[in-house]
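Subject: design request, 310 residues
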């Protein structure tokens, strides 16, 4: 007997799959309105998307405002108590120990206005620096214009400032101030400040998204900026004494934080006159606001596709 050796049957190899040229795939995607995942929209489209999410911005800001002090016994009272307690400390140090109140009429309204307005700027920038890095879960899970986060944080701080201004109004009455037409100037001053702080919050949000350590360094920079902005003392009192060059005094007066503080003082305090304001103050306020907001918004938008990655 002979034994046959069977050779296993090998099926023929399938024909090679022809890859479609990249141009054909691109045309197919365009035909069916497909876009690149995570692609950055054009600037006009981005603005429209942000406006379409305005309800989210206000709801997110209000929810954070409500939850911020939910664990404290006094609850939302701390929104006003915190700047008041800070003002009390600064009054003791600057007003009493350093006698800054000697040359400043109505020092209590002067100090409170400065502290409340500065707190809005400071808190907005601190919150903006954590807008992306502190909400990575939300950023990675949902599709929305990322600018909505720093904008909502700035809006939250604006709501807190409005509550503080109600308390400030009562204090102004107790200090002998009475309502006047100049109080209406607080509205455009506050609008300019809001645009300015929102623009800077957008800048810090982009920086901190890649370098979260900036949030640890920011309080030191903000504290230095506060002392240079005349929140507790009068920059105008530096002029004429010969201790500082006129250029230094003018630079301090043109400092954007000082501009917005002085505008609110001019609007609300009778003894704070136009002579204590830097020249072209309203042009300065509007210029800082437009430059910071437009520049910050465009710079933030340019990195839209990288937020939440890595």
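Subject: RE: design request

Done. Sequence follows.
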């Amino acid at each position: 007997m002979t034994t046959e050796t069977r050779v296993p049957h090998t099926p023929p190899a399938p024909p090679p799959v022809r890859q479609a040229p990249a141009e054909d795939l691109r045309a197919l995607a365009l035909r069916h309105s497909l876009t690149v995942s995570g692609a950055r929209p054009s600037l006009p489209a981005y603005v429209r998307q942000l406006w379409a999410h305005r309800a989210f911005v206000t709801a997110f800001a209000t929810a954070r405002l409500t939850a911020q002090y939910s664990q404290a016994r006094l609850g939302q009272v701390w929104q006003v108590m915190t700047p008041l307690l800070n003002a009390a400390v600064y009054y003791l140090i600057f007003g009493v120990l350093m006698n800054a109140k000697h040359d400043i009429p109505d020092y209590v309204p002067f100090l409170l206005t400065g502290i409340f307005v500065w707190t809005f700027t400071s808190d907005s920038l601190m919150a903006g620096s954590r807008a992306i890095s502190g909400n990575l879960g939300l950023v990675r899970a949902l599709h929305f214009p990322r600018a909505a986060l720093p904008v909502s944080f700035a809006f939250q701080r604006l709501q807190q400032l409005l509550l503080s201004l109600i308390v400030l109004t009562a204090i102004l009455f107790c200090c002998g101030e009475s309502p006047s037409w100049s109080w209406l100037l607080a509205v455009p001053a506050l609008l300019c400040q809001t645009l300015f702080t929102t623009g800077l919050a957008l800048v810090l949000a982009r920086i901190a998204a890649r370098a979260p350590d900036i949030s640890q360094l920011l309080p030191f920079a903000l504290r230095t900026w506060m002392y240079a902005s005349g929140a507790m003392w009068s920059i105008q009192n530096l002029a004429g004494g010969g201790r500082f060059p006129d250029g230094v005094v003018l630079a301090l007066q043109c400092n954007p934080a000082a501009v917005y503080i002085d505008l609110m003082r001019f609007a609300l305090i009778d003894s704070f006159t136009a002579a204590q304001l830097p020249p072209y103050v309203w042009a300065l306020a509007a210029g800082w606001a437009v430059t910071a907001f437009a520049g910050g918004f465009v710079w933030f938008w340019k990195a839209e596709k990288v937020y939440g990655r890595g």
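The CA atoms of residues 91 and 97 lie 9 Å apart.
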